[in-house]
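F.,

This is the one I mentioned.
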């Protein structure tokens, strides 16, 4: 390399080095953590304008035969049941609707911030099962986890967007208090001791969600007027979405249909 070229080459190399040192590093991962809101920014639910969405989640097709759970591997669990126990992954009600569908406002609330409830949602381990099978909470809302069984459980959420943890809970021990900081639909929960134990927790930044019940119905109350996308999420049958406009004090019906064909 000749004199002048060499100088240019050296200068270029130097600037690349400086650039890499200053700005070439990895950007910190963008955090979607929800901090407890300042009271001044909280959107208060106004009962004079709040709307409601109610509906049902219908099941189409032939209901799969309920799967019997065998607890023989753990005598202390089996001893807690006189009747057969069935899986809750697909529960088709007598009226051909589905239980345990998480229905929530997926889109339409913009940047609105809602108060974090201080009241915990309880998740119990009873009869070597989770009760209830599915819950919803807001980000940073406490979840109170109980062990009502005479056996040890090891509760283990397996989130994709939140902190993973697992904790052993012995019989008669203190309840656990836990929170999730980020939105996630849904977090699977398992027990490291009993492979048949499974539940789901939906975590949202707002209070507009519900879990369909024994009649397959759900109610989402207190919605500010607006245009919303509502999603129904089922652990085996996939999701369905619908758009709905809710006016002041309006009550809208949104029904969903899921089948073994809707699995996405
Ligand atoms: Cu367990």
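My design for it:
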């Amino acid at each position: 390399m000749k004199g002048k070229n060499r100088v240019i080459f050296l200068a270029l190399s130097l600037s690349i080095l400086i650039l890499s040192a200053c700005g070439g590093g990895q950007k910190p991962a963008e955090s979607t953590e929800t901090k407890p809101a300042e009271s001044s920014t909280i959107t208060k639910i106004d009962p004079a304008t709040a709307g409601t969405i109610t509906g049902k989640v219908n099941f189409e097709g032939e209901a799969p035969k309920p799967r019997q759970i065998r607890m023989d591997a753990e005598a202390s669990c089996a001893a807690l049941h006189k009747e057969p126990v069935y899986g809750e992954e697909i529960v088709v009600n007598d009226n051909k609707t589905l239980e345990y569908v998480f229905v929530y406002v997926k889109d339409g609330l913009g940047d609105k911030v809602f108060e974090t409830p201080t009241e915990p949602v309880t998740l119990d381990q009873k009869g070597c099962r989770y009760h209830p099978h599915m819950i919803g909470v807001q980000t940073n809302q406490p979840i109170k986890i109980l062990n009502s069984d005479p056996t040890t459980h090891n509760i283990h959420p397996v989130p994709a967007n939140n902190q993973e943890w697992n904790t052993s809970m012995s019989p008669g021990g203190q309840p656990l208090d836990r929170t999730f900081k980020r939105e996630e639909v849904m977090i699977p929960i398992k027990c490291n001791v009993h492979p048949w134990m499974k539940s789901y927790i939906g975590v949202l930044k707002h209070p507009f969600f519900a879990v369909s019940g024994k009649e397959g119905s759900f109610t989402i109350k207190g919605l500010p007027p607006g245009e919303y996308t509502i999603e129904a999420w089922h652990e085996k049958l996939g999701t369905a979405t619908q758009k709905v406009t809710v006016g002041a004090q309006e009550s809208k019906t949104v029904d969903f249909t899921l089948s073994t064909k809707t699995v996405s």
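Confidence is low (pLDDT under 50) at residues 10-30.

Talk soon.
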